[in-house]
Elongation of very long chain fatty acids protein (Dissostichus eleginoides), 396 residues
Amino acid sequence: MQHYGLMYTQQVYFTNDASMQIGGLRDKLNRSNLTDVSFMIVNERDAISRAMYWELKRKAPPGVPVYQQGPLQDDVWEALDGDKDDFLIYDRCGLLTFHIVLPYSFLHKVYVEAAIRATYLKNICNCTGFHALAIWQKLQLFYQGILGNGDKRTDSWPLVYSPVPISSIFLCYLLIIWLGPKLMKNRQPVNLKPILIVYNFAMVCLSAYMFYEFTASSWLAKYSLLCQPVDYSDSPQATRMARVCWWFYFSKVIELSDTIFFILRKKNSQLTFLHVYHHTTMIFNWWAGVKYVAGGQSFLIGLINSLVHVVMYLYYGLAAFGPSMTKYLWWKRYLTSLQLLQFFIVTIHTTYNLFADCDFPDSMNMAVFAYSLSLIALFSNFYYKSYLTKTKTKET
């Protein structure tokens, strides 16, 4: 019996006798009288281990999360002598029940799948004081799962490893939206014309660069437009795709500046629910994208959106010159149509993948599908009120 704080563990060694391994594990779990087992792979953080992680994640029963060793768990890694392919079994109270030690590179064997499917336990953890502690432990495990389950290539990149930095930016953004108009109430609008011109054309350049990188990376890697799993390897092509995904994510953080400019110019009418919702949700969506699926079929979203933003920021850049450019900006309404078109394309693409046999997380597909529908609804409402309603009014 080994002790790690409030966790306890029994160490189980597998030999090459599959039947004995499965039966022994089942007997030990039955005698323990526990429930809701979860698994955490304790392994090296390389490409082979990542492939094993996804294999176990695919084979685990419904409701059984699988985690990979996280960078902040070095002390546990050393304590468990992690020089083999290991994984841990936790009970529903967050207690480490078994430390399974496998022979080298045996995580993909059939008997491991059978052992996972054989785990069923019954304890409900009904001690009140301990249950309160267990909830905290489960929250810790959940947070560690968020940290440890990510793409190890991107974990060291800015604003990726933990959700805390991007959440802090989000809270500061909300504070600015709430406090900014109050501070500007008795002040004159700030003249930001030179800044807006530079900013918008800089965003045109950044968007064009990202569009090129998404196109080149997907083309060189021979990406499929219908189904493209994520390549978690450290190959130059896979790393290049992951890098442009990060730049796309970071561009969404930069785009929060749009709101600040509205406030400083006292354009509070543009601080709509659509504007705030779109800007805030994009930073979290793409944090998750870069954290867990930096590449794969998510590239299509970045590619299309980058192209749309080239056109969008070109419009804003020209508009920043003032009334003299108004006559050249007759195509504003078509910009909204272009934005709607991208959401329809993404929705159709995601819908296909939800029903196709594609090795890309369905949870991500569902999130993108729901998010795209929400944007279609909001942008359609904006288009109707901004253009169709005005057209009817003029005709009347």
